Amino acid sequence: MDKIFFNHMYFYAYHGAFPEENRLGQRFMVDLELGLDLCPAGRSDDLKQTVNYAEIYQTVKEEVEGTQVKLVETLAERIADKCLSQYPIEEIMVRVTKPDPPIPGHYQAVGVEIRRSRT
């Protein structure tokens, strides 16, 4: 399966299980891989034969910044559901990363990765 990918889309939002996350907000990084057949677009050079990257970005932005949830698992699921329902893709990988979570310890980031498909 061919793929379109988005690396390191950054957003500021108010998701989290802790009250300070909901009040102060934090950065979220989202990566996507969209699985679909890119051959028709590659042969025709026609945007209508593929997925418009700007539209995907806007869909993810609206989901991340527009709805507050407690879990990044929920956020990833919502992004996957919305993309699968709105675009002609067969499968999707969504990775949501919290670079600065309010938990003690030494680490670079925490997050989740999910894979979903139409079947």
Q: Based on DSSP secondary structure assignment, what is the total number of beta strands? A: 4
- Counting helices, strands and paired strands, the structural category is alpha+beta
Query: What portion of residues is helical?
Result: 25-40%
Distance between the termini: 14 Å
Number of domains: 1
- Alpha carbon gyration radius: 15 Å
User: Could you report the average pLDDT, rounded to the nearest whole number?
Assistant: 95
Helix and strand run: EHEHHHEE
CATH H-level superfamily: GTP cyclohydrolase I, C-terminal domain/NADPH-dependent 7-cyano-7-deazaguanine reductase, N-terminal domain
Domain Dihydroneopterin aldolase/epimerase: 4-116
Organism: Hazenella coriacea
GO biological process, one term: tetrahydrofolate biosynthetic process
InterPro entries: Dihydroneopterin_aldolase, FolB_dom, GTP-CH-I_C/QueF
Fold topology:
Blueprint: E1 2-13, H1 19-24, E2 26-36, H2 39-44, H3 53-66, H4 72-86, E3 91-98, E4 110-117
Antiparallel strand pairs: 1-2, 2-3, 3-4
Helix pairs in contact: 3-4
